[in-house]
Amino acid sequence: MVEYRIDRRSGVATYVQIVQQTKQALRLGLLEPGDKLPTAREVVEATAINPNTVLKAYRELEREGLVEARRGLGTFVRKALSTAPADSPLRADLDAWAARAREAGLEREDVAALFTSVLDAHFADFKGDA
Q1: For 71-122, what is each residue's pLDDT tens digit?
Q2: Which overall architecture, per CATH, does domain 14-77 show?
Q3: Which residues neighbour 32 within 8 Å (Cβ) at sequence distance 6 or greater?
Q4: What CA–CA distance (Å, rounded) separates 95 from 88?
Q5: Is 57 left (phi over 0), alpha (psi -120 to 50) or beta?
Q6: Would you kindly state where each structural domain of the chain is located, as residue ranges?
Q7: Which of 13, 29, 74, 126 is a Cys-bridge partner for 82, taking CB atoms 3.0 to 4.6 Å apart?
């Protein structure tokens, strides 16, 4: 099950953070079709956010066809997005790179900016959704 982490200082709307984290879990294969998302109550208890925010995020995921709400049962994953499994050798390479970046004294924001610039250079012609 996915555990949401809300960064109130990020400037990104809370419901968008939930959508993004769910999509990331789908891409990494941490969530698969048939898996149940945490209930709104569970997310509220873990993150201290408004239940309507959770429901808004889940409705957005449902609108995109990624999840489906089953009355009285919860919200379930409909569609996988995984193309790079969590145990991929590429993940190990990236993990080692991130460790070297941290050892070199880079802050999280510096690493994110550097990584984003490299991604932008390699995927400039790709118009995938975030």
Answers
A1: 999 999 999 886 666 677 888 899 999 999 999 999 999 998 998 898 888 8
A2: Orthogonal Bundle (1.10)
A3: 77, 80, 82
A4: 11
A5: alpha
A6: 14-77, 89-122
A7: 29
